[in-house]
Design brief:
alpha+beta, four-stranded antiparallel β-sheet, globular
Length: 273
């Protein structure tokens, strides 16, 4: 088991709290998470994909409506197309399996149609939010189990930049929306991903009420931690976390194809009332 002291220092760039509490393999696995961008070509052993889906289905689901699905893509040609649609990220076609997680309200719509019932609630944004949340918590369960088995993974949000093309490629029906992709496979041992520091807890943990003004000192400290991280990793990154993040929201350039998401969702059948 890794040293809790070192794990927490990697996650925060400092020791943020007294960690002299019971420690176990589950905590270690979750705190050790890192995004894997280089994979071996080895296919997943039989039953592993199904186990990941079982873990995903063990996540909570709002009203037990289970408004998510996942498409597992292993075909090389189809992964090549997804690679192109996801900003040419090499790991999308390199990983043995690429999972596309879906906010799936199409199943409910189909059930209602079969029963001769309307589905007017699907016109409202609340149902889409529920489905996106369901898909997200399910996917995170899958990643935790994958990493516990020695696999690596990384989320790919870039598929939303070409949502309609992804939907056509995967034959998605109305009311089914691709939320994000996920590479899964055995990490390339020659490429060692590192744990990236996260914001200090005073920026995200609020007691009783939200306190925006009290975050400034912690964010300033985090900027310095990230500068040190970039230096240690020999990453030629100018500026700090605050500058990078603010620049991404300053214009529409960062959104690219996602800036027309409402129109895309309308085309998928969602009225978003």
């Amino acid at each position: 088991m890794n040293n809790p002291h070192e794990l927490l220092r990697s996650r925060y760039g400092e020791i943020p709290f007294d960690y002299n509490i019971p420690w176990n393999d589950s905590i270690e696995s979750i705190l050790s998470h890192r995004s894997v961008r280089s994979y071996l070509s080895d296919t997943l052993p039989p039953g592993i994909l199904e186990l990941l889906v079982a873990a995903a289905q063990s996540a909570p689901s709002s009203a037990n409506m289970q408004t998510w699905s996942v498409v597992a893509v292993e075909d090389a040609e189809r992964k090549e197309e997804l690679y192109k649609l996801a900003n040419n990220q090499l790991h999308v076609k390199q990983a043995p399996v690429f999972l596309v997680w879906l906010a799936d309200l199409g199943r409910l719509a189909h059930m209602a149609d079969c029963l001769g019932l309307p589905h007017v609630a699907l016109d409202y944004i609340e149902l889409l939010i529920k489905a996106v949340v369901d898909a997200s918590v399910a996917a995170q369960n899958a990643i935790v189990v994958a990493e516990s088995l020695g696999l690596g993974a990384i989320y790919i949000g870039a598929i939303r930049k070409n949502t309609q093309e992804v939907a056509t490629l995967l034959n998605l029906p109305p009311f089914v929306f691709p939320v994000f992709g996920m590479c899964v496979g055995f990490p390339n041992p020659e490429v060692k991903p590192v744990v990236k520091p996260r914001l200090p807890q005073p920026t995200v943990l609020h007691r009783e009420t939200y306190k925006l003004g009290e975050q400034e000192d912690a964010i300033t400290r985090y900027n310095e931690i990230m500068k040190q991280f970039y230096t240690e990793q020999k990453m030629n990154v100018a500026g700090d976390w605050s500058e990078h993040s603010a620049e991404r929201i300053a214009t529409l350039d960062y959104l690219k194809g996602c800036k027309n998401l409402r129109e895309t969702l309308n085309n998928f059948g969602f009225k978003l009332l």
